[in-house]
Design goal:
CATH topology of the largest domain: Quinone Oxidoreductase, Chain A, domain 1
Distance between the termini: 19 Å
Helix content: 10-25%
Shape: globular
Radius of gyration: 20 Å
CATH class of the largest domain: Alpha Beta
Largest sheet: 6 strands, parallel
CATH architecture of the largest domain: Alpha-Beta Complex
Bound molecules: NADP nicotinamide-adenine-dinucleotide phosphate
């Protein structure tokens, strides 16, 4: 989602208000409310960002529906949204890595003040200089999806040059970065996607594309070193059999505690956005033209409900 912010003039006051999308209760998209609220202030270790664009992720609607209320301590009403790109407006005590006026991208802390707003706060460690090649809208679409792909492939599955990875859900936000990171690493990529997305994932570098709706993927591949599971459920269950001995399945949808075949490693992936070096490295790959960024649709802030409806299956 994007907005056309007014350039910052003079100093910010504690009584400044801003437009923001909040939920006052968990539930459907009708719960996304366009409110006038007090602008947040950064605390120690945080930055206040004037948001030029906010990204939309599946986690946004999952939070709205209350799926993550056990994991995160949200005091409702809360401003929703995680991914952002914008200009640093203020830095909290102890922040030396970022300065007011800097163009940045990163992840807002929704327990404090999310990114579907004119201003958001987040940890300075979850914010880095924006890729120079990207406008704010494209930059805002990157952080959560790209960091999840990076952490799953390299921190979780330890993907190596010359290995083969099968990526389920390769046409989605995380999958599209995973294809490109795996190719950058020198791996062979098999991607599952619907037929309509076959050319898209091939264009991102996939060596083989399997239309998951037309044919069982397990009948199309030889044993692979790594499965990146971005779909879960039956897709995950059917994936154990296509891993070679010593192989790894990393999943963003969780892995079972028991029943994993002997000799296979199962890695649950929970993205950690507090990694400025990773954000900087990803920005560098984008600026070098090694990683493409695709934005499907852009909505004004006031139409957050429409944006989340499009994002939700
Ligand atoms: N744990 C974490 O930290 C974390 C972080 C980020 C994301 N996630 C989760 O990871 C999942 C993926 O995230 P995302 O941002 O990439 O979602 P997304 O952009 O909505 O993409 C999901 C993709 O899955 C594909 N798909 C659906 N059913 C499929 C199947 N049976 N086989 C293969 N592909 C299938 C769809 O592609 P087609 O159009 O080709 O069908 C869609 O593009 C979501 O559930 C998200 O909540 C978790």
């Amino acid at each position: 989602m994007s907005q056309s912010p007014q350039p910052l003039n003079g100093t910010l006051s504690k009584t400044d208000t801003m437009k923001a999308i909040r939920i006052h209760a968990y539930g459907g998209v009708e719960n996304l409310q366009y409110d006038e609220v007090l602008r947040p202030e950064p605390q120690a270790g945080e930055v206040l960002v004037q948001v030029y664009a906010a990204g939309i992720n599946p986690i946004d609607w999952k939070i709205r529906e209350g799926y993550l209320k056990q994991a995160f301590n949200y005091a409702l009403p809360v401003i929703v949204g995680t991914d952002l790109a914008g200009i640093v407006a203020e830095v909290g005590e102890g922040v030396t890595t970022l300065q007011p006026g800097q163009a940045v991208y990163g992840v807002a802390d929704m327990t404090r003040s999310g990114s579907y707003a004119e201003y958001a706060v987040g940890y300075a460690e979850a914010t880095a200089p924006k890729p120079e090649m990207l406008d704010f809208i494209h930059a805002a679409s990157v952080p959560i999806a790209a960091m999840t792909a990076w952490q799953a492939l390299f921190d979780g599955a330890n993907l190596q040059t010359g290995q083969t990875v099968l990526i389920h859900g390769a046409a989605g936000g995380v999958g599209s970065y995973a294809i490109q990171f795996a190719k950058w690493k020198g791996a062979t990529v098999i991607a599952t996607a619907s037929a309509v997305n076959a050319d898209y994932v091939k264009g991102l570098g996939a060596d083989q594309v399997i239309d998951y709706a037309a044919q069982p993927f397990e009948q199309q591949v030889k044993p692979v070193d790594v499965v990146l599971d971005l779909v879960g459920g039956d897709t995950q269950v059917r994936s154990w059999q296509i891993l070679r001995s010593g192989g790894v399945l990393a999943s963003t949808l969780g892995v079972p505690q028991t029943g994993i075949p002997a000799g296979i490693r199962a890695v649950p992936v929970f993205v950690n956005p507090r990694n400025p070096a990773q954000l900087q490295h990803i920005a560098q790959l984008i600026d070098q033209g090694q990683v493409k960024v695709t934005v499907e649709q852009v909505f004004p802030l006031a139409e957050a409900a429409r944006a989340q409806t499009e994002s939700q299956p």
